[in-house]
Each structure stands twice: as C-alpha cells, then as structure tokens.
Write a structure and sequence with these properties.
The chain has ten helices and no strands. The protein is an all-alpha fold and 316 residues long. It has one domain. The longest helix has 34 residues.
C-alpha cells in the first residue's frame, strides 16, 4: 500500500496543479475528496497492517493493493462526467472495495475483535469506509438522500473518508505507541477513543435528527479529536525518526485549529444563525483537517511504526 500512497500522492498533486491553472474543473471539495481514495486510504491501510497482527488482515492486505489504486483511478474519472449513470458506474469499484473492508471488519468483530481497543479502532474505521463510498455514489448519481443536496452529499462522503476512516486509525496508532501505564490513563484514553470512534456516526445522525443532536455530536467529535491531538503531543518524544515527530506535531496543531472551527460552526447551527458558513468550513476546517490532521498524521505515524518494525527485523 505504500507504493499506492506515493503514486496516489503524485497524481493528486498533479490534479491539484491542473485545477489551479484551470486545466481541469474541480471544486475545492471535489479536490479534497480525491485525496481520500488516492492517499488517505492506502496510507491508513498501510498503518493498520503495520500495527495489527498480520493474521487478522492477511488476505485483505494481499489483494487490497491491486484493487485500491485501480478503483481510485475510476473515482477520478467519474469527476470528468456530470452526475448521472456514467459517473456512478465509475465509482462502483470503489464502493465494492469499501464493502470488502466492511466484510473484513465484521469478520473480526464476530471473532471477538471488540474485546481489544486496537482491533475496535480498525473495525470502526473499516465499517465507516463503505458508508463514505455509498455517499460518493449518491453524489455522482445526483441523488438527494433525505432531502440533502450538494455540496452536503459529497461533504458527507468526505466526512466518512477522513473523520470516519482515518481518525480511528490514528487512535490505533496512539494506542500502540503511548505508554498508558496507570488505570486512570487507560480510562482517559478510552474516553477519547470513544469520541473518535462514535463521533462521525453521531454527527451524521445529527443532520437527520435535529440541531440539538448535531450540536452534541459535533462537540463530541471536536473533543475526541482534540484529546487525540493532545495524546499525539505526549507521544512525540517516543517517536523516531525526527521527521515522524515533525509530521505528528503538525497533525496535532492542525486538528486543534480545525476542531475550533467545527465547534464554532456547531454552536452557530443550533440557533440557526451560523457564525461560520459552509464554504468557510470547507476551506478552513476541511483543509486543516484533511491535509494537516489526517494526511500529516498518517504519514508521521506510518514512518514511526515502520521504523519500529524495522528495528524488530521486519520489512516494510
């Protein structure tokens, strides 16, 4: 998956440059979303494979690299078509890939994966991915599920690829590297992890249930990811090499900035007098969360865990 992430990153930068000089027509939200299939998902799967026992994911990680990159290319191609049947057909492979991840998660859940926090992080991550894929399909088909219109539909796909898929894997990385020696420290981390794991689903439900639920869920997400950022900062001294420390530090401070915007937006949504508008949320919160928190976090923790694996005589 490492090669897929590298090639995907190069391709995404090329698309971003082409969009900047108006060679291709992509909105900032569409460009932000493409970072998910091209870079975030392969990086997350690589990080997961390095931390969890190989037997839990052996079959999936053997076939995933061959499917993931091809499916991500199809997702890119779908944005060259207007919403409709052609664009939807092109995202079917990505939806199938997400469903494969969900099957792996459910199999581990049946085998008792919920008994261990690290396994639970991976299970939640893999279960959120097909939800994001389904909302992508709705966006490319031009549907308005439950009355939601664009850009909310595509933003929901972004939400489940980043906050849903990636954030639990970052919690998995923290759980594997942080020294939670005391019962109090372990309890506190479980509370933070619970917010990270449950928050994305609760926030999505809040859009359906009502503004009070939306406010509560957004604050849960903000508190969970802010707590995770603080654990990043406490774990930095245990990470090697130094470049991993740099990436994880950027990730920690980015999420503090992004979650501040999320909390302000949520509080404005409750009285229906938004302090931060949706386009500002996408520009500031979305960019800080995607590029800063998620991307830098995954890169930093992947480098750190890879270095630890090499010290044990394993190969990346």
């Amino acid at each position: 998956m490492k090669r897929n992430a590298i090639f995907g990153g190069i391709l995404w930068m090329g698309i971003a440059i082409a969009s900047r000089v108006s060679l291709v027509r992509l909105t900032s939200i569409e460009l932000l979303f493409l970072l998910g299939p091209l870079v975030v998902v392969p990086l997350g799967l690589e990080l997961c494979a390095q931390i969890l026992p190989e037997e839990n994911l052996r079959f999936f990680h053997r076939i995933a690299p061959w499917i993931q990159f091809s499916a991500a290319i199809c997702v890119i191609a779908s944005f060259w078509f207007s919403p409709g049947a052609d664009a939807t057909i092109l995202v079917v492979p990505w939806f199938c890939f997400g469903c494969m991840a969900a099957v792996v998660a459910l199999w581990n859940l049946i085998r008792g994966g919920r008994k261990h926090l690290q396994n639970l992080c991976a299970i939640a991550s893999f279960l959120y991915l097909p939800v994001g894929c389904a909302w992508l399909g709705a966006s490319r088909l031009g549907l308005t599920p439950m009355g939601f219109q664009e850009p909310i539909v595509l933003l929901t796909a972004v939400h489940f690829h980043f906050a849903g898929f990636a954030a639990p894997l970052l919690a998995l990385a923290v759980a594997s590297k942080s020294r939670l020696d005391s019962p109090a420290a372990r309890r506190m981390f479980r509370i933070v992890a619970a917010g990270v794991l449950a928050g994305p689903g609760l926030l999505a439900a809040g859009f359906v249930i009502g503004p009070r639920m939306k406010l509560a869920a957004a604050l849960i997400v903000a508190c969970g990811e802010t707590g995770l950022a603080l654990y990043f900062l406490t774990a930095i001294r245990n990470l090697q090499p130094r470049v991993a420390q740099v990436f994880v530090t950027i990730s920690a401070f980015s999420v503090l900035f992004a979650m501040f915007f999320a909390a302000v937006w949520a509080m404005g949504e409750f009285p229906l007098q938004p302090f931060v508008h949706l386009d500002q949320m996408a520009r500031f919160h979305g960019t800080a969360n995607a590029l800063g928190f998620v991307l830098c976090g995954l890169v930093g923790w992947t480098i750190a865990t890879s270095r630890a694996a090499l010290r044990k005589g394993e190969s990346w």
